[in-house]
Design a protein that fits this description.
Layout: H1 20-31, E1 34-36, H2 37-44, H3 54-67, E2 68-73, E3 81-85, H4 87-91
Length: 92
């Protein structure tokens, strides 16, 4: 006798939008209309004792490109990119 399989009762992508960087970015956009790459990096890695490397900043930029548009560059040393949330994400 063959057992019938129960269909999956979970969404196809259960963790979509729930990564650590995505949560930090969502929270920062609730506080401000425009955020910088440095703001996200500092907030995400606030307890880190070693300096951030290029890979950390690249991950922040890659995640921000998915949900936001670059609007300019900040002033000062390193000139972080300023980001504004896309309209499609603001509605949901």
């Amino acid at each position: 006798m063959q057992r019938s399989r129960k269909p999956l009762q979970r969404p196809s992508q259960p963790c979509l939008g729930r990564g650590k960087l995505q949560v930090v970015i969502r929270r920062l956009f609730l506080l401000s209309d425009v955020i910088s790459t440095a703001d996200v990096s500092r907030t995400r890695h606030c307890r880190r004792r070693t300096p951030l490397n290029a890979g950390n900043y690249a991950a922040v930029r890659r995640t921000l490109r998915q949900v936001a548009d670059p609007v300019g560059r900040g002033g000062g040393r390193g000139r972080p990119t300023l980001w504004r949330l896309r309209n499609t994400m603001a509605k949901s």
